Amino acid sequence: MAAAIALALMLGSASVAAQKLARLVLAGPMASVSNPLVHMVESGALADVAERVEFVLWRDPDQLRVQALDGKADVLAMPVNVAANLYNRGAHLRLLNVSVWGILWMVSREQGLKTLADFRGKEIAMPFRGDMPDIVFGLVAEAQGLDPRKDFHLRYVATPIDAVQLLVMRRTDNALLAEPAVSMALRKVRSFPLDVVAPELYRSVDLQKEWGRVFNRAPRLPQAGIALMGRVKDDPALAARIEQAYARSLAWCKAHATECGKIVAKHIEALSPEAIADGMAASNMEAVPATAARGEVEYLFTKLLARNPALIGGRMPPDDFYGGKAAAK
Fold first, then answer.
1. Helix boundaries (H) for the chain
2. How far is residue 289's CA from residue 152's CA, in Å, rounded to a whole number?
3. Kindly report the CA angle at 77 between 221 and 302, in degrees rounded to 5?
4. In the predicted model, is pLDDT for residue 270 greater than 80?
5. Within a 10 A sphere around the Cβ of 51, how many other Cβ atoms?
6. Per-residue pLDDT at 151
7. What is the tens place of the pLDDT at every residue in 222-266?
């Protein structure tokens, strides 16, 4: 049996090597989900897969959709609802894993705010209108009987960096941010000269705990993961190789947060190594294969279908989205 397993592994590696690519593009946002992708590049984890492996940053959802629909990336980190939306619009992708289970926090100048209801009537800077942070905020607020558009003053901004700047320049008192932008904001106001002019900020409401509380579930939700595009998604051996490499790099980043911060900051200049390391420590990340995460993903999708079907492309994705047997479209 051991010999058979060893032979199968050897043949699998040979299959990947025989189809070695000239270039493999890994793309992701300025968020913790991208850290393992950067480590995969820096560590040469996929050197047997491609002659050149690159990481490309997408800065907003529009850039993400262009990379996905125009075939400019092979491996894309993205919110799970965007992956479903793109799939249902005809993009050739499948969800490989869900790795982000909790990176959304409210950041505030005011201490003692425990639930979203405590932010009633306050202005909140919100990056990425209509995407995952905004979506989760809306679902959690509505489950508490709150109207996101009437009970809060939502100030939409283009990127998390824009929201951080509003906080540190005292142009808003609250923001919804994902790690490592949360840690970046907290560190900025504790460093000279900003600590002279910017009042203290606090890590406030944990959106994952709020999700668990209002929906009577575990305090986590499947926010983002890795999707495989085009030629990569259709090669089972290559997909398995990428899945394994991502899981190993995530484990390394969690165990070596300081070193992870240093290498990621080389690729994402807007972030400091310290904020990236802090963000890894605060993030709930686990690389769960898409097939295993499907139940929790579909629970989220059920909520999105009830709120606005367009958020996932109008329908629940079929088996093929998760790497299972293809379903008729």
1. 2-18, 35-43, 61-69, 80-88, 132-143, 160-168, 181-188, 194-197, 207-215, 230-233, 236-255, 257-267, 273-282, 290-307
2. 36
3. 35
4. yes
5. 10
6. 97
7. 999 999 998 899 999 999 999 999 999 999 999 999 999 999 999
Q: How far apart are CA 313 and CA 296, in angstroms?
A: 18
Query: Is the CB of residue 255 less than 8 Å from the CB of residue 36?
Result: no
What's the pTM value of the predicted model, to 2 decimals? 0.88
325: its two tokens: 């047997």
User: Structural domains in the chain?
Assistant: 2-102+223-322 (3.40.190.10), 104-215 (3.40.190.10)
Peptide bond between residue 193 and the one before it cis (omega within 30 degrees of 0): yes
Q: Which residues contact 147 (CB under 8 A, 6 or more apart)?
A: 141
Of 127, 137, 296, 106, which Cα lies nearest the Cα of 211? 137
Q: What is the pLDDT of residue 6?
A: 44
Instruction: Choose among 40, 38, 134: nearest CA to 82.
Output: 134
Q: 């939306």: which residue's tokens?
A: 85
Indicate if the pLDDT at residue 156 is higher than 90.
Answer: yes
Q: CA-to-CA distance for 100 and 223, rounded, in angstroms?
A: 6
Q: CA 240: distance to chain centroid?
A: 20
**Over residues 60-82, mean pLDDT:** 92
Q: What is the DSSP string of 60-102?
A: SHHHHHHHHHTT--SEEEEEHHHHHHHHHTT--EEEEEEEEEE
Exposed/middle/buried for residue 268 (C-beta within 10 Å: 0-12, 13-18, 19+): buried
Token pair 């590049």 is found at: 41
